[in-house]
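User: quick one, sequence for these tokens?
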């Protein structure tokens, strides 16, 4: 889960408190959509952001044993990409927004295993075999991390989106004509 807080000071001459809250909720939602469509796929691209310690995401280095296994089993695929199921789950996540923050959650906390079935307990207490396992916390943290460059861009985008929405007549303060 990734949380991003949004704070913008309201200009009282442009919009009411209620409309400010509506605009902020819409801005937060738009930031979440942008992050889902543009930033989440970068985690699976194998680009410079994903280089361990050197990239913007700060991924931890993998062991030589793991890298050898991955090169043999899934040749040419970048970090976090084996079958593509983790990427599909991350990109199918949901976004919720309030006037103060937006939250992004991956669709499924389980990812397919590389092979074989594992025994798992169901909610009803029965034991079944399945081919998924829970997502490791270390991998979840790597999928959910946001680089400093992305944060700076999202902050600028929030200001631009707020100004664009606040200028629409729907969100502006309506003045009553005086009878006097």
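Assistant:
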């Amino acid at each position: 889960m990734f949380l991003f807080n949004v704070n913008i000071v309201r200009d009282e001459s442009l919009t009411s408190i209620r409309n400010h809250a509506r605009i902020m909720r819409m801005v937060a939602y738009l930031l979440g959509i942008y992050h889902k469509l543009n930033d989440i796929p970068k985690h699976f691209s194998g680009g410079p952001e994903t280089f361990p310690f050197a990239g913007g995401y700060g991924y931890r280095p993998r062991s030589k044993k793991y890298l050898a296994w991955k090169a043999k089993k899934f040749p040419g695929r970048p970090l976090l990409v084996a079958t593509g199921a983790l990427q599909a789950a991350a990109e199918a996540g949901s976004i919720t927004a309030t006037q103060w923050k937006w939250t992004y959650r991956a669709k499924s906390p389980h990812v397919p295993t590389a092979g074989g079935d594992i025994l798992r307990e169901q909610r009803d207490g029965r034991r079944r075999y399945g081919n998924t396992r829970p997502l490791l916390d270390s991998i979840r943290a790597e999928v959910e991390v946001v680089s400093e460059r992305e944060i700076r861009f999202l902050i600028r985008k929030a200001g631009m989106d707020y100004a664009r929405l606040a200028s629409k007549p729907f969100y502006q303060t309506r003045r009553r004509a005086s009878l006097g």
